[in-house]
Amino acid sequence: MADYKELASNIIENVGGAGNVDKVIHCITRLRFYLKDEKKANDAAFEDMAGVAGSLYNKGLGQYQVVIGPAVADVYDEVVAQLGDRVVDVEATENATAEAEGVNNNKPTNLFGWLAYGFKVLIGTITGSMIPVIGLLAAGGMLNGFLTILSDPKLLGWVSPTSTTFTLVQSMAMAPFYFLPVLVGFTAAQHMKSDPLTVAAIGALLIKPEVVAIATGKATSHLLGMPINASFFGLPITVPNYAYTIFPIIFAAWLARPVGNFFKKHLPVAIRSIFQPLFTIFIVGSVVLVIMGPVITLLSSGISVAVNALINWNYALSGLIIGGLYQVLVIFGLHWMVVPLIANEIAQQGQSPLNALVNFTMIAQGAGALAVFFKTKNANLKGLAGAGTLSAFAGITEPAMYGINLKYGKVFWTANIGGAVGGLIAGLFHLHMYGFTGSLVGFPSFASSKDNPHNLLIFVIASIATIVVGFLCTYFFGFSDKDLDKKTKTVAKKNVFKDAVQ
C-alpha cells in the first residue's frame, strides 16, 4: 500500500486544521469535509497539491470536497487515523458512495456501448497501474534522447555507440522500460489490492535472463503458427519476450488477489507468511506463462501479417491507418511482433517504410501532451505533460500515453488524428527511413539518400503536420481542465479486474 500520511496531513492543514473539521466522509472520488468555517480552507493550495485533482465548496450540501480519485478510500483512512474516530460517520459515507455510484454507473444498452465501456475501464486499470512509474519512464526517455544526440555520428558524435560509456548510460535510460513487469507489477498490485511484493516477484520471473533466453531462442516446433520454444510439465508452450510489456503483469496482479486471499483464508497463521506467496507465485506465474504467452503471440502474429499486407497493398492508405491506430497496439504490448518486420526491412532493403509510418505515431502522442501542457492550469499536470512531451519527441511515448493521453481519454484519440495525417503524407510521398531511432530526435534516420534526395524535407513537412494537427485537435476538442474531475468519476474510480473479482 502507498503511504498517504504526508498527503493526509497536507489536506488536513489546508482545510483549516484538525480543529476546523467536524466530520469527514468520502464517496468514490472525493473526501467530503464538514467544516466549522469553510472560509479557512485554502483553495489555492489544493490546485498545486500532488495527489489532489482539485477542491470545491458545495454550499447545498455544506461540504468542502477534495477530489482525490481512485485512492480516496486509502487517503480517507489516513485522514481518520490523524483526526481520530470523532470525525467518522459510517452511514453518511456509505450513502455518499452509493449515490455517486448510482449516478456514474450507467450501464451500456448495446454491444457497441459495452465494448466502449469495457475499453474505458480497462484503460482505467492500465493507467492507474502506470501512473506511479511515469516519472521514471519520462526520465529514461529524455536521457535516451540526449544519448542519441551525443552518440549519433550525424549529430554530435561525442560518445561512441560501441563504448562502455554508451552501454552504461543507455542502461540507465532503458532500465525502467526493460523492468516494467517488475515496477508495474508492484503498482498494479497496490491498485488492485493484491500483494505488491508477490506480484513484483512474478514480474521478475517474466524477465529473468533464463526466461528471456527461452523467448529469444530457437523454436523446437510450431503450433497454429506459434513458435513452441518450451514445455511446462510436458505441456508445449510458447514463451514470448515479456521485457517492456505491462498487460501480462497487470493480468497477474488481478489474478493474484483471489488466489492470495484464498490461501490467506485457509492456511494456518504459523505457515502463512511462507506458503501464501509460494502458492500464489507458482499458480499465478504458471497461468501467465501458459495462457498469456499464446494469446500475445497469436494476436501479435496476426497483426504483423495484416500490417505487412496493408503496406504492400497501398502505402498511402497504410500511412493513414497505421499513423492513426498503431499506438493502440503499444497499449497492450502487441507491437513487438511488428519490430521484426522493421528489422527485416532494414536488413534486406536498407530502409523501412513501416518504421517511417510508426515514427509519426510517436510524434503525435507528444503533440497531444504538448497541447495539455499549454492548456491546463494545473501545475502538477503541466509538469507531467511537459516531461511526457519531451520523452515522446525523444522516441519514448509511454510517459505521454499513460500519464496524460490515455488518462484523459480523448487526448489519445485527438493526438492520433495528427499521427494519421503525418502517416498519410509520408505514404503519399513514399518517405524512407534508414534506421531505428524515431520521433523528432530520430531525424538523422531520414537523412537524404541518393535514391530519395527530398526524403528529409518530406519528414520535416510530415512532422510539422503531425504536430500542428495533433496539437490543435487536442487543444480545442480533446482536453479541458474539467476533465481532471470528470475522469475520476468514470474510468479511474474502478477497473475491470476489480469488478471481476468482486
Topology:
Layout: H1 5-14, E1 21-26, E2 30-35, H2 43-47, E3 54-58, E4 63-67, H3 72-83, H4 90-104, H5 111-130, H6 134-151, H7 164-178, H8 180-192, H9 196-206, H10 209-216, E5 221-223, E6 226-228, E7 230-232, E8 235-237, H11 247-266, H12 269-313, H13 315-331, H14 339-349, H15 353-375, H16 379-393, H17 398-405, H18 410-428, H19 455-478, H20 483-489, H21 496-501
Antiparallel strand pairs: 1-2, 2-4, 3-4, 5-6, 7-8
Helix pairs in contact: 1-3, 5-8, 6-7, 6-16, 6-17, 8-9, 8-11, 9-11, 9-12, 11-12, 12-13, 13-15, 13-18, 15-16, 15-17, 15-18, 15-19, 16-17, 18-19
Examine the coordinates and then state which fold CATH places here, giving the name of the CATH topology of the domain at 5-104: Gyrase A, domain 2
- The shape, in one word, is globular
Count of beta strands: 8
Question: Which architecture of the domain at 5-104 per CATH?
Answer: 2-Layer Sandwich
SSE succession: HEEHEEHHHHHHHHEEEEHHHHHHHHHHH
Radius of gyration based on Cα positions: 24 Å
Question: Main beta sheet: strand number and arrangement?
Answer: 4 strands, antiparallel
Distance between the termini: 19 Å
Helix content: 55-70%
Structural description of this entry:
There is one protein chain. Helix 12 (269-313) runs antiparallel to helix 13. The chain has a 4-stranded antiparallel β-sheet with strand order 1-2-4-3. Strands 5-6 form a two-stranded antiparallel ribbon. The chain has a two-stranded antiparallel sheet with strand order 7-8. It is of the alpha+beta class and 502 residues long. The protein is built from 21 helices and 8 strands. The chain has helices at 5-14, 43-47, 72-83, 90-104, 111-130, 134-151, 164-178, 180-192, 196-206, 209-216, 247-266, 269-313, 315-331, 339-349, 353-375, 379-393, 398-405, 410-428, 455-478, 483-489, 496-501, and strands at 21-26, 30-35, 54-58, 63-67, 221-223, 226-228, 230-232, 235-237. The chain has a domain at 5-104: 2-Layer Sandwich (Gyrase A, domain 2). Strand 5 (221-223) and strand 6 form a beta hairpin. Helices cover 64% and strands 7% of the residues. Mean pLDDT is 81; it is low at 101-105 and 488-502. The two termini are 19 Å apart.
